[in-house]
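Input chain follows. Return structure tokens only.
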Amino acid sequence: MLLDAVLNVGTEGELAATLQHVVDSAADLTEARYGALALAGPAHGRGPDRGRSRIAELFSVGLSDDERRRITRLPTGHTGLLGHPGSSLSLGVPVRVNNDVLGHLCLARKRHGPFTEEDLALLRVLASQAGIAIGNARLYGTARQRERWIEGAAAVTTALLSGETAADALTTLAKSARILAGAAAGVVLLPTDEGGMEIVAASALDDPGDIVGTNIAPGSPVLVQLLSGEPVYIDDSATDPRMTTHVRSRFGPSMMLPLQSGGRLIGTLALPRKRGGRPYTAVDRLLATQFASQAALALVLADAQHNRERLAVFEDRDRIARDLHDLVVQRLFATEMMLESTRRRAGEGELSDLLGHAVDELDSTIQEVRTTIFALQQPPADAPTSLRGKVLRETAGAAALLGFQPSVHFTGAVDTLVEETLHTGLLAALRGALAAAHRRAGVTSIDVEVDATARLPDGRDGVRLVVSDDGERAEGEEETSVTWETAR
């Protein structure tokens, strides 16, 4: 019977069924009325109970529901399964995995006589088999956990290389890591100019709005450890003195993992669990650290890919601009000269007027094409949303062609007073004025003024753009400035 019991241990598909089979077999082979296999949870208690572990799982035979409820702590060797003193009425042995005691296999009330040494030896064999089953289940669970982290890292890499924006990519990383780690939040921090770190992306079970933007001050112990390339493991974020952020009070166990590339810290991945949540195991820490290394590499590759794509776009735009300048503008200019020469020979009259109008149209077209060329030559970048940012981007792009930075002045709350519908017209006028200044000889400085408090000639509130430069004036030209204005 013992051989059959041992051979049957581990043939069940589920660990719970296997452990229940161990208890059933132990009770049958020893003729015990009661049997239980209790697995330990975290240690709790004070006084006499201090250090005794609560029972995390209990598999039993012969016990009523009420008796099961009364068994809350593992036996210590001084008490039996049902609280009776250790004697011939009860029998218990530890269940070990390697050298760790994970629980106890206990029996009580043998039907015929006291428990014997043979019963004890039999119980030890079954407890050993239970330990083997638990150990195998742990190995399988670790393998499945490792597989999930590997799959998660591959999914994050694919997402980061699929062309997402930087913000979306970091949020994807935070969310994936949170799910894999069973954390309450996934957080990505990036270095600040001041030497600290700032949370730039977060994924949380609840609203992460107050998490994003949180800063870690320069010189904090956590930051020093991260900058040295070492992960930071915290048992309780709310009470650990190394944690200084205002959101720490809601979190418990946490991991802060450096995202490194070429020995340089490019960011940090933080994975806090809820207050009172289960601690991270050594396996959790190892797998999360490996995931962070893979994610850091994916971030670097995604950034390099994004830069290559932007460079390709810029090169394509530059080619189009050159083609427009070398082919289209030159042909239009040549046609304009031919029409102007024909108009002069035609003398006065209707034909001359028509030719003059055609010359003016061609000149206007040339100006528009040149403005387009100027816009194409601006460096590609994430477009700003505010009028102030858009104006500054245009002038910064012009600086690359002009060889100097135009001076920009704003009057009034331009981002608040000027509606977005007016941005297009103002920016088109700005591009045209900058392109005209670029063509003018002797230009060494350009002044750009945007006045959101301008008063129009008809008395309405308006916005006014004035672009002036110090270039040489053409014959008959009084000033080298462009003014654009409209009501707001």
